[in-house]
């Protein structure tokens, strides 16, 4: 009786092993098919006319969207044209101790030669001349 139960359990385990092996083979075949499909898609994507196909499939876009896209392209091209060479030569001014101390820095925000709190409003030259002549009580000799 005990031998019969062990034999039946052994047959059940054999069936499970066979079904697992067949499942494994199916999954391997599926993986192989997906890898082949992926390779085809990579080749299609890297081809130069794939951009044209992608653009044709998108459909027409509005004039505003087209103009906005062109504007972004132009501004990104303009920004990237000579920034690397310009950034090497920019010097920033440090006002932390009240004196002008030049430091090499790539940031254009810090490269301004004016004091950060100076008013740069739209004054006429006459008003600017008069404001320079005015007496400041804290700075008088």
From TrEMBL:
Biased composition (Basic and acidic residues): 86-100
Domain of life of the organism encoding this protein: Eukaryota
Keyword list, A-Z: Coiled coil
Basic residues compositional bias, start-end: 130-141
Spans annotated as Disordered: 74-141
Record carries keyword Coiled coil: yes
Coiled-coil region list: 3-44
UniProt KW Coiled coil keyword: yes
Protein name: Uncharacterized protein
Species for this entry: Opuntia streptacantha (Prickly pear cactus)
